[in-house]
Amino acid sequence: MVIAIKAVYVFVKPIANLSKGQCTWSHRSALFEMDALAKVNRINLVSSLSPNVFRFTQNGRRCLFIRKLSDEFIIEDLQDNDEINVIVITNCHIDTPKLSMKTLESLEILFITECRMEFLPLVENLSNLTYLDLSFNSLSYFPSDIGSLRKLKVLKLSGNRITNIPSEIVYLEFLQVLDLSHNMISHLPRKLFSLRSLIHFDCSSNTLFRLPDNISELLYLEALFLSGNVLTTLPTNFSLLKRLQRLNLSGNRFEYIPFCIFQCFSLKELLFSYNQASGFIPDNLCRLGDLEILSLAFNKFTKLPGKLSSLSKLEFFDIKGNNIGRIPEEIFSKCKNLRHVNCGSCELIEVPPSLGLCTNLRVLDLSGNMLKKLPSEGKALKNLISLFLKNNKISVLPQWVCDLEHVITINVCKNLLQDFPNGFSSVAERLRMINISYNEFEVAPSCLFSTNSKLTYFLMDHNPVLQIPPEICNLKLLTHLSISHCPYIFELPDELGGLLKLRTLRLCANSLLKLPRTMHRLENLNYLDLSDNKFSCFPIVVCYIPHLKVLLYNNCCHACTYLEPDPPGWFDRTDLIDPDASMEKLGKDYIDEVESFAAEDERPPTLEEALEFEKEAAKIPRIKHDEISNLVFKRKPHKIPRHIYCLKFLVHLSLQNNGLYFLPNVFNRFKYLKRIYLNDNNLRKIPSSIAACKTLTDIDLRNNKLSEIHGELHRLPNLKNLELDGNNFPLCLREVIKHSDLKGLCAYLDALNQNRDFILRRMCERFIGLVSQDDWAQILQRLGVSEDTLEHIEDELPGGYNFRRRVTRALEYWSRMDLSTRATNFEIQSPGALNTEALTTSAAAIVNTTATTNTTPSFEDEENLSEERSQAPAPEPSTMLVGTEAEISILQPITLTFTPLVSGPKATPARLIHVLKLLDKKELVNAMTEIVEKLHVHQI
């Protein structure tokens, strides 16, 4: 089998070059350091056993690549590979200590990375091994067997859990590169520094608090990385490291720059950021005449000495985050080789005019200061590529900015700009990114919308802009556009739909009333933020953006929010009346529409059809004031259109704080949706289709008006977070939500579902005894039993003496329960109470608590009970069950010989009470409610 791997690149560098400190292995991309003559090559690979195992030859070396396999398959793949020279094993799961490589005597380079490996493979016989990388595993100790690898030149153990280094390391006399970064090492043994060949040593991100004095014995050391430790000082003989060229001491606890560093005259790179050094920057730094990179960022220095101007070779200078107040004139006038200068957050009031003499400057960062203007002369800065002026008080840019011939990035965010200088259009044509947010632009600068624009990132948030010009369509290469917090923007031009490469669009916190219909052309748009606008309804065109993955639509309804009380008359008779529904749709027909799933083959309307429907709906009100009386409040709620299921690639959906009372029951159509945020709405019901969205990992339903959790929401296979606080759940469920984790909550809900079926059975039994012959057919039809099904029951069980049996049969069809064996037994057994201790164990433990029942009378009035029993038909002997057999039959599904037609929501106690309230059957409502109250499960 031949596999063409298009994206595999092989970096081949000489091991001899390690003497120059050029070790740049990337374990994630499988970049090999092998041969001096080879360069980057794109290759086709010849496979061996599977797509995760393949072999190839590069520069005369036989290579084996293994990924995403378990250890037993790796052992099998390593067989019959005696002549292999390079092995790369990555992203596998190795948990056996018996992974042997004894027979691989020709092996020279071995990578085992990101494999969660806790044991070192048997490598003592690999006498030719020169390169070993075991980074990003779970090794808790430094493998002493490595000491037998006498030819080893490169050893990388980064990203493990190593705490100590064994004495056997002294046997690696040819070791040139040692990487122990990102471990838990608190001290270094003295024997480590007897490795005289060591050139590159990385022990960053550990817990070192001091270095041994004999570190000076590493006479050939060129690169030393010790960042991210807790060092406070260096050994006095540190200055004997005369070949040291690169030193990183960032992120430690130094209170001053150790004097011994100033005697390491070969230093070219000194990184000393994120320490606690204060006062004046020492003049002795100027003794490091070869210094090219100097970073002193985020210390507490207060003065920058002018003598540093003697560092004539300095190219990179970072003093960000120090309160130095001013920059000496001679720094810029004498350091002619400066290419990158970062003086951000230094409390600068002005910049010396000598800045304009830095002819080689590529990057200039003056962000976070108190600058009101820039030097007037700067024509020599023609090589500038990036200019960062964020968070100052600049109101006018100097004219020399228009002469920057190579600039591609400008950030002037958080200033006082109202316009750009004349001639800026020539610069704008070369820009790739510009940020003009938090300024005072009232008109979007026309110079930014040139037909030759190369802009890919454009941010103009927090400006008093009145409108977006139609020339925005000239930004053909734009991929990221942010126009947010502009309160005077009410609409966008149709030309926005011409930005065909746009991937991210932020339009939050404006005053948008609608969106251009051309937005459906944005085929590459993945991210859209419409939060905090003033839409009168959800923009239907959003549903037709074909590849949208993230949709944020929060706080877009300012007329109906969660904090407002229910309008008068709402939910008095039903909890499903839509305030925007016509009178003809109230009740069963409307409920069926809300509850109906979106079929997989359902064809959505075209955009033109949807827009026309939206236009007509806005033009003709569906409810008149004299029709609704006090039942329905006239105000329209915010809605999410059913056609949202057209966003088939949606991964993240946020609909927070929109006053939503209902959601379309279409979530079964989302195949990639992972996160949905519905908190701070008015939701009283969860769409049952959410339980069919198997990819969901995060659901937020906080601060709604839910009284129960519908469906199988808690059984979603990938669910990690379910937020339910701030709803109207019963006390027991609120306590479980508050004190239990997701596992305990799911176990509780499983038990609750079984109790709900138990309660429904008792309600059905009570209903059979109370319902009148005049009402039963109407109630069952409203529950969803079709007229044809009721006629079939009449034919099957005719006559007045079969009335109760007809009701029983109809309820069996509706509830899918066998009620015949219990139709005359009104002795109700309440399920056992749930114990909180069981909630943190397992669902089985909780369900078992419901099997223990206590016999209690359902009603106190024995005379009424006798009368109801006398009205009920006698049970058939063949179906009678007694004792435990009767209990076992409680939740047995009925086996049907006739296929009934039943529609509407799932049969639940709440559904039955809802329909009875809708039909104003007060006596039945009271009886059903009494059963619910008596049998409701309460937490101990």
Automatic annotation (TrEMBL):
**Keyword match Repeat:** yes
What InterPro entries does this protein map onto?
A: Death_dom, Leu-rich_rpt, Leu-rich_rpt_4, Leu-rich_rpt_typical-subtyp, LRR_dom_sf, LRR_domain-containing, LRR_R13L4/SHOC2-like
Q: What positions does the domain Death occupy?
A: 775-824
This protein's UniProt keywords = Leucine-rich repeat, Repeat
Q: Where is this region: Disordered?
A: 850-878
> SMART domains attached here?
LRR_BAC, LRR_SD22, LRR_TYP
Annotated Pfam families: LRR_1 (PF00560), LRR_14 (PF23598), LRR_4 (PF12799), LRR_8 (PF13855)
Enumerate the Gene Ontology biological process terms. Answer: signal transduction
Q: Entry's SUPFAM superfamilies? A: L domain-like, RNI-like
Q: Does the keyword Repeat apply?
A: yes
Gene Ontology cellular-component terms for this entry are:
cytoplasm
PANTHER family, per database record: PTHR48051, RAS SUPPRESSOR PROTEIN 1 (PTHR48051:SF1)
Q: What is this protein called?
A: Leucine-rich repeat and death domain-containing protein
Native species of this protein? Echinococcus granulosus
